[in-house]
Amino acid sequence: MSYGEMPHKGVLICCNLFIFMGGGAILGASVWTAVTIGAFPSILGASAGVFISVYLMLAVGSLMSMMAIFGCISVLSENKKMLVIYAGILTVIFLAELVGSVLAFVYYPLARDAAHSSMELYNADNTIELGWDTIQ
Prior knowledge:
Number of domains: 1
Strand content: under 5%
Mean pLDDT: 78
Oligomer: single chain
């Protein structure tokens, strides 16, 4: 490896660090949502579209974190095939994030309206009250 190639490795490892942190953030938010998801059906109803995006983002966040580690290994080992595989899988991950974001955007008005209507029943229905208390 020549001296001119050294900064490229550092840039790629730095990018992988940001990808790892982004995957960790997505994973953390989706794990919190998946853990507290038991309260959401009582508030939002049984619409499956709202919950699909949570599980999609859970998978994408964990895959991003694993792929960042794979990317660091491929950069450090200077294996061209591994770098091509890494770039292809990152493209698939980006497309999955795009689908998850579109699902969240499409179902947001439905979830917002259901949440606002359930707030009116906060003191009347014990399951809705428990659901809101769990989320908070």
